[in-house]
Records
---
Amino acid sequence: MSALIKYIDKPHPVTGVTNSKLGIWCFIASEIMLFGGLFSAYVLLRSGSTTWPHAATVLNVPLATLNTLILITSSVTMVMAWASSALRDYNKFRMYLGLTVLLALAFLVIKGIEYGHKFEHHHFPKESIFFAIYFTMTGLHGLHVLGGIVVNSYFLLFGKRMWDEHPEQFTGRIEAAGLYWHFVDLVWIFLFPLLYLV
Amino acid sequence: MNHASHAHPLPFWRKYIFSMDHKVIGVQYAVTSLLFLFFGFGLISLLRWQLAFPSQPVPFIGQFFNDTQMVGGIMLPEFYNQLGAMHGTIMVFLGVVPLAVGGFGNYLVPLQVGAPDMAFPKLNMMSYWVYFIGGIVMLCSFFVPAGAAQSGWTSYPPLSDVAPLGQTVWLIGMVFLITSSLLGSVNFIVTIVQLRAQGLTFFKMPFFVWAQFVTSFLLLLAFPPLEAASVMQLMDRLAGTSFFLPSGLVVGGQPLAHTGGGNPLLWQHLFWFLAHPEVYVLILPALGIVAEIIANNTRKPIYGYKVMVFATIFLGFMSFVVWAHHMFLTNMGTSMSSFFQITTMIISIPSVVILTALILSLWGGSIRFNTPMLFAVAFLPMFGIGGLTGLPLGLTASDIHLHDTYYVIGHFHYVVAPGTIFALFAGIYFWFPKVTGRKLSEFLGKLHFWPSFIFINGIFMPMFILGLAGVSRRLYSPEYAHAQAVQPLNVFISYCAWGLGLAQIPFILNFVISLFAGKKVDSNPWESTTLEWQTTSPPPHENFEHEPVVLHGPYEYSVPGQKKDFLPQNMREN
Ligand code: HEM
Ligand SMILES: [Cu+2]
């Protein structure tokens, strides 16, 4: 890696951000367009269809509500992890990041249980446009959760060296990971009412 | 500058294969995409046989194909469709974009902004390898049962939803390619925003950097909806959903087992939301290259540099609101089609502004007609023809007649083939000395340029006539009565296409010979002002001995009172 690249750990004096922060914002912009494509597909397909199931009768709203709470909590622990990293408290940092990963795993497990129930009742993506979009959107969101788990676990398991050697850069990375994680939460906060409530 | 890579020389595979140096990655992109360009050209040259001599066996080559492709050397319709669809896909996604953005952009942007590398070197390496895998996946699709994708590069459903396996492979390849350009565009944006050298304000950046900057935003924001669409099409094909399948579809006399309820137009919206901006992804870098070369070889500043920059930004914005001009024939209603007609007319304005500025730049210059300049100057009228012939397609009244005919093929190829490809060739001739320290031969270069110029017009000019006569694109058999009248033109086009293939031989020879035995030149053989020429050729590991400090605009040629006729961006006046 190039040792001469600037603004890896210190913000750029004019833009006020580090490279990784600008990078993650760009990435999130593209992710918004990705989910935007799906959301507009949802609108188009729903407005064009003659029947649409009353979501609460086919989906498990209480479980999804629980999942929403779990995800929101994990956003909080993520912020705490970043704050502890900025305050140089390694033990707290580990604890909060570990919690974030655990909560994310819990989310996926619950989602898995939900999927399982659907399959038991022979609800598959091909059943109807509603289930097609339900499985595609939650599936893609689930993959993003998985991505967050991988990234955060990486920092949890292999981050120590960078923590010691490049503390500022490390905090910057945790911040970037956190921004991504909040984005994943935000997508869910849109998905939840759209699929389960309206 | 004493860190690990200087103390210990990197092993071969780290230096040239899994390299993180933007210059090596740029060369990797350029070489790979050139190979894909030639391959894509090979596909279409084969297809042209069927159009010139329908249902006659392809001589000699025919015997090498299996019976799902050719029977007794006669091309089957399915195989014809594969050739057409894969030509389009390969040219756009594996050829031109990777060459223009991955190759030229990667190599030049960090140099032109005075940075030691891209902002994220590891990500840069990854984006090349993801592209590479996507390319391999696309190539492999020829070998799956029933062959490669057949539904055109646009992959319209319902056809694409029920097409054989090759379409699935196409979609998987696309997901790789989209991911790759996404990683790349993040890298470009961050590099240009954060890593510009001291003194290099936005309005001192060379136009090429601006072009890449806007292009990156297009890639960043336009590609993801297609990724969403690809995921949905994959679901349709693999999980049995029917996002793009309406109810009650009958295929081959059998009702489809899908539940239906979907909408094929949804795909078209998501696809063209990408594919219109994609047009500008193809041409903006080309415009950037042409601007650099014209400024350099007329020895005077670009005319209206700032206006060009604003026009480019405006173009970038507008390209997101015109996509449905590809869908006028889908019964979208008058008010919608008025909206898209008007925005389409508006978006032609910035292109005209840029082109006019480039033409005015020639005015009164003491022009040097070297090979790069020939290609760059030829770009101007070719791009102009491409642009002007697009106007009738943007108006519903004329589009009803022209839609999906060879007129369309003629129109966009003028933009991308004698247009963009010429600009890319110009760029290769221009920056070859920077990359290798040697110059390409001028003689072979001209031997490449003139026949290419003649043949390429011989290919695409008659296509307008074919289209006006009503000959459809993607038409396997040109033997219909209405097409018979213009069939001699088809024969002529095919001969020109094969001629164009032959005309590339001097280029390939030139490239290989000059690599080893070309004339050695000093670091700034064209006497250019931009930063990449102010370091050695090829540039050292971290591009510049000392970080350059920029004092001037990008095109300070023929400045009064100077000893030389050019003033490099980082040089003090005397
Ligand atoms: C310079 C040599 C080229 C020749 C002779 C050529 C020729 C053709 C022809 C004859 C077709 C119509 C195929 C059909 O009827 O199915 C076609 C389609 C197409 N070409 Fe090219 N082309 C060239 C270069 C390019 C380049 C540089 C690009 C893109 C950057 C490109 C992109 C396309 C696309 C997107 C299609 C539409 C494919 C489809 O219908 O699915 N071509 N080309
Ligand atoms: Cu368009």
---
Amino acid sequence: MTISTAPEPVAADAPPAPRRRRAHRPGQAREWWLGAALVLPALVLVVLFKLVPLVRGVLTSFEASSGFGGSEFAGADNYTRMLDDPMVRTSFRNALLVVATLPVWIVIPLVLALLIHQRSPGWKFFRAVYFVPYTIAPIVVGIMFRQILAPDGPLNALLRGVGLQPLAIEWLNGRYSALFSLVAVALWSFFGLGVMTYLAGLATIPEETLEAAYLDGAGFWRRLFSVVVPMLRPTVAYWSVLCASGVLIWLFPLIYALTQGGPGDATMLPEYLVFLTTFQFLDRGYGSAIGIALFVFVAVLSIFSVRHMFTEGTRKPR
Amino acid sequence: MNARHSARIGRYLLTFALVVVAVAAIYPLLFTVVSSVKTQAGFADDPLGLPAGITLDNYLEAFRRMNMPRLLLNSLITTVGGLVLSVLAALLVAYAVTKLRFRGGKIVFLLIIVSLTIPSQAIIYPLYQTVLDLGMSGEYQGLILAYAAFGLPLGTYQLAGYFQQVPDELIEAARVDGAGHLTILFRLLAPIATPALAALAIFNFVWMWNDLLLPLVIMGGSDSKTLMVGVSLLSGQYDVSVPLVSAGLIVALLPVLIIYLVFQRQLVSGALAGSGK
């Protein structure tokens, strides 16, 4: 039951105004300030170390600034220069070549995950072993394989030993074998993550469906393609996007250790070219322009997974 | 039975495939371990064979040449610092965004998540400039803050997802009992989120410890350079042998390998959530 009161009489010389209820509870304002205080550390970190550098990168990309001297505004010169630069074109073309190997990155971990998931003998051991390469720092992987792929290294020794002498080549010094080697080493380094990603995806498929597929008299490969793969489509899509964007950012330490972009420009990729242009050729404006182009590619590729993360993170449980 | 025979043969072939991949996964590591305990002469004589006698000389020389204790300390300080800072900041944001009536929380969350699309490789020079302008180039805090900024988005996402699942009624009950916000966060929610926090901490440790580009650029060749930068410099010297480099590599990868063996489940679950880093 509420008690209503007549409005207070107003002075004759003032216009009548309805009494307004207080707009905000003090507790609500205090909670907002608390929330603002709690997000402040994260906000400072992200703004200062990610957004500010991104904006500065954009600004620098519009400058002509080389060596240790000053800089002057150059409009879109750095971007038009990129379009004509054989090295830039080669680096993005090499990136496309690497992305073209995506089917291998998708299928090998998938097959391994399926074999593990159906509890092949020793499956726990295999699952643990496959992840070991992923735990090793990429720079360590790169140096390790530089020794293994050396002309007199163990790979060539093995090839000679089994009578495949013609294949015992200088892997890291051939125009095509260098890029091939780089991709193979990267696959070695990251395939374990793919296996785990697929195992996580398989864990979301109802056990009865999988058991029915396994018990079916049909062959393994038919089960693979007709039953399981369609149900794994979201995982396949996720892993594909991850690998495609990974090509643009994961390979820097491997290139640094194995090939330094060579021979010539055979293994130059955008993420290495940004570093090379900026820190070795000291062309800051141009390096920033290549960096922004790289950012655009990565952002376009990863925006879908980011959108998924945002949606999932803000959705109320039902 | 023909069908049973072919099924068994198929199973053997599949297991064989698993074994072959396992050998391919482990052999490079074994080759490096074996090389690291050979003398230079022994390695030259028989690069592929088992060592005639085991020597630790390569480790002693790698330790000396790389100033290993200093590198290990540098990596430990920057990794633990970056790890703690990013997890703490993520914890605060996740709580504010999911459990407080904080208008603007969604925008902050979106900003943090979207920053995942900014890879360090693309902004490496302006990031270096920013750290330089802040007076932190070559200093631990420069790398610690950079690690925290790049490790934060994933943590925020994971913890927000976790806190989302905690019923609001539980929070209200704690408030009625007089619990303050920090008590709710650190005494109630953080313990519930322990699995996520553990996976997050271990995953962040691994990528920060293993990272090359950020320490290479932010620390440069200073006394504060990290282990991975030191390893890359060692292998760049012209008078080093395969056994010596191998010893350096083994020391560099051992901490993470040990962590993997001890915390395999947490590392894997953290990696699965964080692959986009």
